[in-house]
Amino acid sequence: MEERPETELISIPATPRGVSTPEIQTPTGQRSPRPASKEAKSSTAWTPTSFISPRFLSPIGTPMKRVLINMKSYLEEVGHLTKLNPQDAWLPITESRNGNAHYAAFHNLNAGVGFQALVLPVAFAFLGWSWGILSLTIAYCWQLYTLWVLVQLHEAVPGKRYNRYVELAQAAFGERLGVWLALFPTVYLSAGTATALILIGGETMKLFFQIVCGPLCTSNPLSTVEWYLVFTSLCIVLSQLPNLNSIAGLSLVGAVTAITYSTMVWVLSVSQPRPPTISYEPISLPSSTAAVFSVLNALGIVAFAFRGHNLALEIQATMPSTFKHPAHVPMWRGAKVAYFFIALCLFPVAIGGFWAYGNLMPSGGILNALYAFHIHDIPRGLLAMAFLLVVFNCLSSFQIYSMPVFDSFEAGYTSRTNRPCSIWVRSGFRVFYGFVSFFIGVALPFLSSLAGLLGGLTLPVTFAYPCFMWVLIKKPTKYSFNWYFNWILGWLGIAFSLAFSIGGVWSMVNSGLKLKFFKPN
């Protein structure tokens, strides 16, 4: 095929079923298909092949009919003209488009379950049984709907794939406003979560070492900061995998370990005798103002448990897409499987943890409670296994949450140099990012105690912005149920974001309500 200018609109010919779509050789040797993309349309909508119907073909002779049928297959495969951006083949998120429903399930599960699930019983200690279960159920259903919205909006405009959350926000809110609204929360959910994972992972490695070694290795143990450095070094080594599809195996490891340790901690907790002074009444506070703010902070913790929407479009961007086989089909299939398992992790941890410890739940969550109340009742091997699984999950989660940051670094480099990153430049970016995250974690060791506050600040990414973007891009009939439903959900999300953020700030000001995942010795 002859070369064409970058800005020219070209159509990609159909390929026989089972044959891969046209590809571009990437800097890392991956084969990156460059398929056309199109949002699947309903059967009643007009398509380029609408006129080729059985009634139209019936009076036509066999040779002409064969030509028209072949043309129909071609048009269904191509669907529309697609503008190809060569830079996409150089960036980690879009470098490889060989993803499938299995990869989508692994990535969504790895991004959706993590250390934030372990502190859900803390929220129940302030909310009680009824409000705790109700808020967790509503949040789960709400975020599942907004995930479906993002999956559908990935190819909302013919010939355009929104491969990143900020790109979709710019299409909905405008170039400048979209960046202002979406950049901070998505950057925190990527870079901030990665920093928090270094803190959690390093501290968990230290506890694992103490459990396994016991009194034999206490002569000159590593400090907490040194454990942070060990964990960061492991993260940097794993981060050398080139693109999002290449870490599918790590995401599978992260998904399996998350399911395993979530199940282990609640099963071990409910299998042990409950503390004699346990109570299921919400924690009493000295004033009604304190009670209101503590409830808001607890709801922020529930909101923080549902993260990963900032990665939904990026995960879908790794899949090939044509008019006949749009990417949203395997993406949604994988997401449904992932969120089924996410529910099996979050609800038992929250309910089982609160049943086992009630309002005696430490502010660090169920893993800290298990360590504090049953250190002598549970075999050391089981405790060590639980901590080791947490470490593996943090290592895997670091990779998927850091990938958008790597993509931004390389996008800036390729746009200035008009060439792909070499292996050394790419490795340099990732080493730099890993150690910057390490130094931030050392300088701000209380970052992991901001779950309620940061759950409120980043809540719009999951609960509000997708609803607004659906109305602004899809443009449903004004004053219809769909129009009212999305506007109401969007503004409720903004209101909850403000309220939960205020509750998070209040909880940080009051030292007795600070949330800490682990307390280093």
UniProtKB/TrEMBL annotation:
<feature type="transmembrane region" description="Helical">
    <location>
        <begin position="288"/>
        <end position="306"/>
    </location>
</feature>
<feature type="transmembrane region" description="Helical">
    <location>
        <begin position="423"/>
        <end position="444"/>
    </location>
</feature>
<keyword id="KW-0472">Membrane</keyword>
<protein>
    <recommendedName>
        <fullName>Amino acid transporter transmembrane domain-containing protein</fullName>
    </recommendedName>
</protein>
<feature type="transmembrane region" description="Helical">
    <location>
        <begin position="337"/>
        <end position="358"/>
    </location>
</feature>
<dbReference type="GO" id="GO:0015293">
    <property type="term" value="F:symporter activity"/>
</dbReference>
<keyword id="KW-1133">Transmembrane helix</keyword>
<keyword id="KW-0812">Transmembrane</keyword>
<feature type="compositionally biased region" description="Polar residues">
    <location>
        <begin position="22"/>
        <end position="31"/>
    </location>
</feature>
<feature type="transmembrane region" description="Helical">
    <location>
        <begin position="450"/>
        <end position="472"/>
    </location>
</feature>
<keyword id="KW-0029">Amino-acid transport</keyword>
<dbReference type="Pfam" id="PF01490">
    <property type="entry name" value="Aa_trans"/>
</dbReference>
<keyword id="KW-0813">Transport</keyword>
<dbReference type="InterPro" id="IPR013057">
    <property type="entry name" value="AA_transpt_TM"/>
</dbReference>
<dbReference type="GO" id="GO:0009734">
    <property type="term" value="P:auxin-activated signaling pathway"/>
</dbReference>
<comment type="similarity">
    <text>Belongs to the amino acid/polyamine transporter 2 family. Amino acid/auxin permease (AAAP) (TC 2.A.18.1) subfamily.</text>
</comment>
<dbReference type="GO" id="GO:0006865">
    <property type="term" value="P:amino acid transport"/>
</dbReference>
<dbReference type="GO" id="GO:0012505">
    <property type="term" value="C:endomembrane system"/>
</dbReference>
<feature type="transmembrane region" description="Helical">
    <location>
        <begin position="247"/>
        <end position="268"/>
    </location>
</feature>
<feature type="transmembrane region" description="Helical">
    <location>
        <begin position="118"/>
        <end position="145"/>
    </location>
</feature>
<feature type="transmembrane region" description="Helical">
    <location>
        <begin position="378"/>
        <end position="402"/>
    </location>
</feature>
<feature type="transmembrane region" description="Helical">
    <location>
        <begin position="177"/>
        <end position="200"/>
    </location>
</feature>
<keyword id="KW-0769">Symport</keyword>
<keyword id="KW-0927">Auxin signaling pathway</keyword>
<feature type="transmembrane region" description="Helical">
    <location>
        <begin position="484"/>
        <end position="509"/>
    </location>
</feature>
<comment type="function">
    <text>Carrier protein involved in proton-driven auxin influx. Mediates the formation of auxin gradient from developing leaves (site of auxin biosynthesis) to tips by contributing to the loading of auxin in vascular tissues and facilitating acropetal (base to tip) auxin transport within inner tissues of the root apex, and basipetal (tip to base) auxin transport within outer tissues of the root apex. May be involved in lateral roots and nodules formation.</text>
</comment>
<feature type="region of interest" description="Disordered">
    <location>
        <begin position="1"/>
        <end position="46"/>
    </location>
</feature>
<feature type="domain" description="Amino acid transporter transmembrane">
    <location>
        <begin position="98"/>
        <end position="509"/>
    </location>
</feature>
